[in-house]
Each structure stands twice: as structure tokens, then as C-alpha cells.
Design brief:
2 helices
Length: 136
């Protein structure tokens, strides 16, 4: 096995381990306590740059409450079944979400919906191999 083959094999192994770690973490997060979240704001944002151009997705900020304390997060919607168009931003403002939060650190969260408006929810703990999470 030459160096190129070794680098390719290592790259594939690292990608697989990373994917599996994210999947396990995501599955564990679904068992965390739940809180109702609310979408506060949304806008189209450039979330990635490729050789073909920029990738722009609707990105939303939301808040949720644990005890007396409020927390927040951000997620993006990646067209999957449908392309909801730019009007999705206005439709999402005020929408309620089910959020799971880490009982040891309530700032750590995951939106439990996999699909919203026919789009994949992209967030820090997404398990998709193609993942364009919003900036934190």
C-alpha cells in the first residue's frame, strides 16, 4: 500500500468515525429532557462556499426555557422534499419547536424535528454526510 492509498483509507476511516460519533450523539440527545422552543428570527444566509458558488439557506434563531433561564440556538433548513421558497422565513417566525436539552448543560440542545416544511433540519448534531450547519 503506497502513501496515497494510505491517505485515502485514513480519510475514509476518519469520515466514517466522525459520522458514527455524530449519529450516536444525535440519538443520545433525543432522550434528553424536552422544552418547547419558539422561532424568533430568520434570514437567508450564506452557510458554505463551494467551487460552484455560495450555498444560501434559510437560517433561524430560536429560544427555549429551562426553569427560569432562557437559552437559544440556530438551525438551517436544507431543501429536501420541497423547496419552500423565501416565504418560509415569514411562515416560520413564531413557530413552536420541540427542543431536547442536555440536563447537564442546558445550553446544549437539539431540535427534534428531522423535517420542517419539507426541508431537512441542519444543526450542530445533524447526522447527514452533507451538512451545512449555520454559523454559531
Amino acid at each position: 500500500m503506497d502513501l496515497v492509498d494510505l491517505l485515502i483509507t485514513a480519510s475514509i476511516a476518519i469520515s466514517l468515525i466522525y459520522y458514527l460519533w455524530r449519529r450516536i450523539r444525535s440519538n443520545q440527545a433525543k432522550n434528553w429532557p424536552k422544552s418547547e422552543g419558539r422561532v424568533e428570527t430568520g434570514a437567508l444566509e450564506v452557510v458554505a462556499h463551494t467551487k460552484f458558488g455560495q450555498i444560501e439557506l434559510p437560517v433561524f434563531s430560536f429560544s427555549y426555557q429551562v426553569g427560569p433561564q432562557f437559552y437559544g440556538g440556530r438551525f438551517a433548513l436544507l431543501p429536501y422534499i420541497t423547496d419552500p421558497g423565501p416565504s418560509v422565513i415569514q411562515r416560520m417566525i413564531g413557530r413552536k419547536l420541540l427542543v431536547a436539552y442536555n440536563p447537564k448543560c442546558a445550553q446544549e440542545w437539539v431540535v427534534l424535528d428531522d423535517l420542517i416544511e419539507g426541508c431537512r433540519v441542519e444543526q450542530k448534531l445533524s447526522t447527514h454526510l452533507v451538512n451545512y450547519p449555520p454559523r454559531s
